[in-house]
Write a structure and sequence with these properties.
The protein folds into two domains: 3-274, Alpha-Beta Barrel (TIM Barrel), CATH 3.20.20; 289-436, no CATH class. It is built from 13 helices and 15 strands. The longest helix is centred in the middle third of the chain and has 19 residues, at 168-186. The protein has helices at residues 3-14, 42-49, 67-83, 88-91, 130-137, 157-160, 168-186, 217-228, 252-264, 267-271, 357-368, 396-407, 417-420; strands at residues 20-23, 55-58, 94-97, 140-141, 144-145, 192-193, 196-197, 236-237, 277-278, 289-296, 299-306, 320-321, 335-341, 343-347, 427-428. Helix 7 (168-186) packs parallel to helix 8 and helix 8 packs across helix 9. It has 444 residues and is α/β, with parallel strands linked by helices. One calcium ion binds next to helix 12.
Length: 444
Amino acid sequence: MADYAVCVAKRMDRIGAPVGLIIRERNCPFPYGNPGPIDPLAVETALDNLPKLDYLLMDLEPWGENGDEMVRRNVEEIYRLVREHPNPRISSAAIGNYNDWPGMTDEASIWPSKRNRTEDTSFNSDAWDRDAFYKTFLNVAMPVAYPYEAYSRHSDTAIQGENITPNDRAAIFWAPLERVSVAARNLLPGNLLIPWVSNFVDANAPPAFYNAPPPSEADIRALVQHIRLRGAHSFIVWTSDNGRTSHPDINYGEFRAIAIDAWAELDEFFDSSENHEFLNLETDKKSGMQWSAVRAGSEIKILVSNLHQSRAMAAPLPPTDGLPSHTPMVEPGEHAVFTYTLDPAVRDFENDGDIDANDFVVFISALRGNSRETSNSVGGRGIDPRDIDASGQVDLMDVIAIANAIREGKFSPDSGRKTTRGGSTPRNNRSRGRSRGVASVDTK
Ligand SMILES: [Ca+2]
Ligand SMILES: [Ca+2]
């Protein structure tokens, strides 16, 4: 390891900045594939000389004849080297690898026969349970969220049957989001979610079958924002070794700037509260409309992407005082952001589609068997819907908030959802534009 790298790391440590390493097939302990100059001692040397290590991220992919085996062998060895290191500021590093994430199925895979991640689905390799592999060795989920042109086959009934996207543009938007979402749904408590992103990866295959349009800047921005609104901690930008990508209009550097800017547009919202509730980790392949929503205290931000070619659609929202039952209609091909102020104490805690007296009964009775886990916890990071003040815990303050709502009659049949819902006006950021630091609304 070069002296200057250690010197830089020490300076980073002094100012409290994170230190990370990227390991590839040439500087892993057992180099493989066709790596060029190799450095098999790079990991050991780095661990022994760095003052600390926050992230060890790998791009180890199954290149070459025995690639699958070499990925496993190297990840296991790197895991051992890090975790057994005597320096606790090294041994506690977060470790992740390209395309390794928790989840038993991968609906984003074009081929239905390759969607099971708990058994071998590739040729010429041993059985490889990728879900168990992640859970054994890794704690940074790194799904590959590229808009591959090859995903256009998700709109092909010959392969997918009825389960198709409405068009190719929707396919290359939905598939990467679904892959990030399944990782988010299955993320273990305390793990990180850092997807790989890119602008476009064309298919070197017959255009009759692989022919998706490269994503527009608006689609790229929206995908990055959906990823953040589903609990990703950060993202990592992929580039090919020669620094080029196959997007005809947006080069690598431009993509990087767009992704960083799109992510940062949400900073103000995320910074407004220490804790966040992630309301939707599901995707909808067939409709072509995807929506993500995050609650920060009593504010909610919703991003709706309608990639259907002709149908206007609205996203359904959970019954809550201050929210309409659906967002306003979003025109085909458009992305739209909506923000609302709501009363998070008045919600459909029973999850039966309405707000009534049963909801506070369910809230109170659930306190006794209080479990922190919710379906949308994203590695324990997302808060429970019952955490009304977004303090990070369901506690007495939340009970008081509910009690106040009861006193105000907000759970009574006359003043519940029926009268309050639909009466609020969304602050549609459409009219505000980018100068206010909110996500763009764009057409393709
Ligand atoms: Ca209810
Ligand atoms: Ca609370």
